[in-house]
Amino acid sequence: MINKLPRFSDKHKICIICEGNEEYEYLSRLKDLKVWNEQYDFSLVNAGGNGNIPARYQDRYQNGSYEIILVFCDTEKKPYEQYEDIKRKINDFHGVPNAADEVVMFGNPCTMQIIAKHWTDENLRSPAKPVNAPLVKKYTGVANYKGRADQIKEVMEYVTEENYVYMRQRVSRLERIDNVTGSSNFGKFIKLFESENSGWIDGVNEKLEE
Length: 210
Prior knowledge:
alpha/beta, five-stranded mixed beta sheet, 10 helices, globular
């Protein structure tokens, strides 16, 4: 059970553990654009690498300050060892076989797969930044994208309230099976974050506590 603190706000407190800078800055940008339902108060944690995600997740879960803890990460490339390790540790923590499927938002092969949907239908086939750099330059003008902090911030300026609508449509059409290249379940979570019915939070927590 989450040790829930009494609520001093009408907003539902949601914590998202972000794998790294790209995930953190992207969700920060969407927060700033206020594209999600205002009843949700999102707190973002930059894990600084996928190896740190399980510990950050457990820490925030046990902290009890949030109604739900989610994860936002890449699958990287096959055989998805680190990604599968994250899922296994979350499942073990809850003692529920498919707990991670309820709380992990993924992009296969990488988060840029989701970000790029603001501008294009094109599916990425590789998580390698040199491979995806031409696409980033084409739509944002940021040359030789390596995922540096300054480059990420520059790319985020091209994520807008207007093209969020296109991203939402494109991501919703992607496969949601995490071992399929070019897949993401982010569309499912977008609908939840836009929803006026917050009952999904209790629904997820009930599945984690079975």
